[in-house]
């Protein structure tokens, strides 16, 4: 299997073949998802919450994300690896966006970058695409704007649907190869998907997108607390790991580990 490229994703949309994307932030997760045939791996700025233990995605820096990108790309042979640009590293100007994206491509070994925003980010998207960097856009609920959007809530309901459609068309016109739609009503996401030539990737955007994305620690049951409604849990890794850690500690305390077979 050859490495996925953006033109292949476009062909899959034309063929009506949905594809899958997951986040990844380290070697083994990346290797496993790559082997499973996940077409796109996103080194999300959600590493803020899922790797670094921050409360939101706002604090994570370019310097914190680049080494994760490098690990993910090195661990994969098939997946297209997308680097998420963190808050504050691209909104300032197209040149700032370009300089940041170049770092992720050169030092992070990413194949594409992702940034949040619709029509207002069109100059940034255009600048990167002109510079040879494929761009994935992200509209609807955009976590980096949590404070101006008034918290985690569905975007594009009612009258706001027209703005979401306009954002989707704007990022396509600016040259994005795909667009994530987060927490957008299913019928609005479906209409956008029909209208666009580029792939739409849903997260809390219903079933009629060209692709879906989830954060892997959410869908594999690693994280604690209540999951968002749009997450389906496919595994319970937290209990698996908790049981293993407890069994190991018990064995050490009782002397059951190491046994003769573990001893030189
Ligand atoms: O950072 C992230 O995990 C994301 C996806 C949820 C799309 O942006
Ligand atoms: Na993100």
* Annotated CATH homologous superfamily of the largest domain: Phosphoenolpyruvate-binding domains
Structural class: alpha/beta
The ligands found in this model are: 3-methyl-2-oxobutanoic acid, sodium ion
Which outline best applies? globular
Low-confidence segments: none
Question: Might you state the CATH topology name of the largest domain?
Answer: TIM Barrel
Order of helices and strands: HEHEHHEHEHEHHEHEEHH
Q: Quickly give the CATH architecture of the largest domain.
A: Alpha-Beta Barrel
Radius of gyration, taken over Cα atoms and rounded to an integer in Å: 20 Å
Strand order within the widest beta sheet: 1-2-3-4-5-6-7-8
User: Would you report the number of β strands?
Assistant: 8
* Distance between the ends: 42 Å
- Percent of residues in helices comes to 40-55%
CATH C-level category of the largest domain:
Alpha Beta
Average predicted confidence as pLDDT: 97
Please outline the major beta sheet: 8 strands, parallel, barrel
């Amino acid at each position: 299997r050859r490495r996925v490229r953006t033109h292949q994703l476009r062909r899959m949309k034309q063929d009506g073949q949905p594809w899958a994307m997951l986040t990844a932030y380290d070697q083994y997760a990346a290797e496993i998802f790559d082997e499973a045939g996940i077409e796109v791996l996103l080194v999300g700025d959600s590493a803020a919450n899922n790797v670094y233990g921050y409360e939101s995605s706002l604090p994570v820096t370019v310097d914190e994300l680049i080494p994760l990108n490098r690990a993910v790309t090195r661990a994969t042979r098939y997946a297209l690896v997308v680097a998420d640009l963190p808050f504050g590293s691209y909104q300032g100007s197209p040149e700032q966006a370009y300089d940041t994206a170049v770092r992720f491509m050169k030092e992070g070994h990413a194949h594409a970058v992702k940034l949040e925003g619709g029509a207002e980010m069109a100059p940034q998207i255009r600048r990167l695409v002109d510079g040879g960097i494929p761009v994935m856009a992200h509209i609807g609920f955009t976590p980096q704007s949590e404070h101006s959007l008034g918290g985690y809530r569905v975007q594009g309901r009612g009258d706001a649907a027209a703005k979401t459609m306009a954002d989707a068309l704007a990022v396509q016109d600016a040259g994005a190869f795909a667009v994530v739609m987060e927490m957008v009503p299913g019928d609005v996401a479906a209409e956008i998907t029909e209208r666009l030539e580029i792939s739409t990737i849903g997260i809390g955007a219903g079933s009629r997108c060209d692709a879906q994305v989830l954060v892997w620690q959410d869908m594999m049951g690693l994280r604690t607390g209540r999951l968002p409604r749009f997450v389906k849990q496919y595994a319970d890794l937290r209990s698996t790991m908790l049981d293993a850690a407890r069994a190991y500690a018990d064995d050490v305390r009782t002397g059951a580990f190491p046994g003769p077979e573990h001893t030189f």
